[in-house]
Amino acid sequence: MFDKFLHPMIIIFFSLSLLSCGGSDSPKQEIPVAVIVEPSISRFSFLTENNPSLTSNLNLSISGNTITGRFPATADWQSMVATFEHTGTSLTVNDTAQTNAVSEQDFSDVQTYTVMMDDGRKLSYSVDVVAFTGLPIIYLTTSGNGPIESKEDYVEGTVTIKGGRNFADAPASVMKIRGRGNSTWFLHPKKPFQMKLDEKSIFLDMPSKKKWLFLAEYSDKTMLRNTMSFEMGYLSNLEWTPKSIFAEVYVNNEYNGTYNITEKVEEGSNRVDIGDDGFLLEIDQLNRQDQDDVYFYTDKFLVAIKEPSLDWDDEQYNYIKAHINAFEATLFASSFRDPINGYAKYMDVDSFVDWYLINEITKNVDSKSFSSIFFNVVPGEKIKMGPLWDFDLSFGNVDYAGDDFPKPEGFWVKDNPWFARLFTDSAFLEKVKTRFAYFKNNENVIMDKIDAYAVKLNLAQQENDLKWGTLGTYVWPNPVVFDTYTEEVLHLKTWYSQRMAWLDEALNNL
Fold first, then answer.
1. At 258, phi and psi to the nearest 5?
2. Which domain holds residue 245?
3. Can you give the pTM of this predicted structure?
4. Beta strands of 117-164 (E only): which ranges?
5. Given Cys at both, which of 311, 333, 406, 431 links 396, Cβ 3.0 to 4.6 Å?
6. Statement to judge: residues 38 and 99 lie in one domain
7. What is the pLDDT of residues 448-504, one digit of tens each?
8. How far apart are CA 486 and CA 464, in angstroms?
9. Is 341 inside a domain boundary?
């Protein structure tokens, strides 16, 4: 409706009072003055009358050559009709003419709109409209819209992905879903989930598998502690560290917040690769074992057998129980330092060093002796620590482990019985010191990633807080409470920086 009134040159006539040499009685003369109109876009909107997926009109902001805005999650941003005003004779996207309030366009990516004038002058604008928060959106729909209220019993349903700019869309596929976690399941209103697809599939570009975890990150208001620990894992020599992707999650068409979608710690060629006869083990607690779980004791720990599924006292059970106990007995024997027949005979030392350092750097509360201490064994090979898991209560985010725990100073994981013994060997200590220098040299890499993720989550954390209202409120087990997301992230960065400085001095003084 606007185009037909616009022309590249508008001639405006107005009167100029010109005085002749004859004085004040000289006649006045009207002189036409040409005003050159530059190519520009002055308005860019999406109206409900042209876009049925919108519930209200959306007016975009124009700053220089950039036009920005946000689509609601319900918008069909792959097929939107824009309404605009411009001063050109034509408007194009990729050389395709655009008709005001008629042309459909895919705004999954930034689009370039070019205003053209008859005389060849033109100006291009980047139209950048974020889909909701910029994160992929996952829609979980359960059968009959039933609630997900059990850790034991799956609820059947479908899962759909709107990937936005960075991920592929995925049509509805069959899945089943249940709750997961311990304190995170029982204490917090935003629940974590385990989803099992009907068949192995790539999910948010992560390698094909059936099971995927939805971490709620409720007590970690930065939502970054697990991800930053994984980033350290990617820098390490550990064989496998879970991949994770942030996404917005809807459950039965109701927004449920921002989740960290991760690979599950389980056996598999593209997860924990233990082959056909290996073992995935976890140091855990008796009160966390289910009725069907199989475990054994050493002198120091309860060790749960996560993979494979075994019967009590069968051949594999007796093998792995004897093997781990033999390792522990050797570790605490008088000759444990012997490079041939001591602990090094049983364990992959480099994996123990990297696992230790990442958990000590983050001061992960559970890794001292409580849970989520994973290691794996393939018969004929050495015991390997890992993978990393469960870091929401790290980086000082705990108020129940003593007054000194939230502080960046002080050893923690070093007091794990196995590691306490290893630290009495000067050869192991030197490996730790050398390897810590590597992580210290990569401190800025982690700092930059914290900043980058915080930017990526800027809109997401706002929507998540509107849903759950955690900012500025105590959430178990936060030792400190800040009013804003920016303050939470700054606290994380400050704590990490101080922790690295303290460890640098403390390890070198051992």
1. -90, 130
2. 137-263
3. 0.91
4. 122-131, 137-142, 155-162
5. 406
6. yes
7. 999 999 999 999 999 999 999 999 999 999 999 999 999 999 999 999 999 999 999
8. 14
9. no
